[in-house]
Structures are given as structure tokens and as C-alpha cells.
Write a structure and sequence with these properties.
Elements lengths: L2 H23 L6 H6 L2 E13 L1 E12 L14
Antiparallel strand pairs: 1-2
């Protein structure tokens, strides 16, 4: 992996982490019961959308899933 690619990946993970922190810090955040049921969480800090006759969207982010059998373990490292 090139150094600039690694830097972009680290920036993307930092941005995704900041988004999650901001969401969890708001008073009416995501209910803990919903997070307890989640197998995976995907965060896309920025998504570009475009439309002309047909539409599309593009974004990059990070995903983390629970480890273990049937996704019952602790959260794994983001990918």
C-alpha cells in the first residue's frame, strides 16, 4: 500500500469516527437497544449524489461488524 493511500484511509477512518461520535453525543441519539441488535455499522462521512435523467450516488466510508459466531462478539476493527 502506498503512503498516500494509507493516509487517505486513515483520514477516512478519522472522519467516520468523528461522525459516529457526533451522532452518539446528540441528546436523541441512536437507541442503545438498536445498537445492541446491530450486526454491522457502516458510516459514510460524505456521499456525492448526482442526477440527470438517471441518478446515482458515490461515497467511501468504514464498516465494522461484530466478531464471533452469529455476530455476537465484540465489535471488530473497521474495514
Amino acid at each position: 500500500m502506498r503512503a498516500d493511500d494509507k493516509s487517505k484511509d486513515m483520514d477516512r477512518l478519522d472522519s467516520a469516527g468523528q461522525v459516529v461520535k457526533e451522532i452518539l453525543d446528540i441528546p436523541d441519539d441512536i437507541p442503545q437497544s438498536l445498537l445492541d441488535k446491530a450486526d454491522c455499522v457502516i458510516v459514510l462521512p460524505s456521499v456525492l449524489k448526482a442526477a440527470f435523467i438517471i441518478g446515482g450516488s458515490y461515497g467511501r466510508g468504514a464498516m465494522t461488524c461484530r466478531s464471533g459466531d452469529d455476530f455476537q462478539g465484540p465489535w471488530a476493527h473497521p474495514r
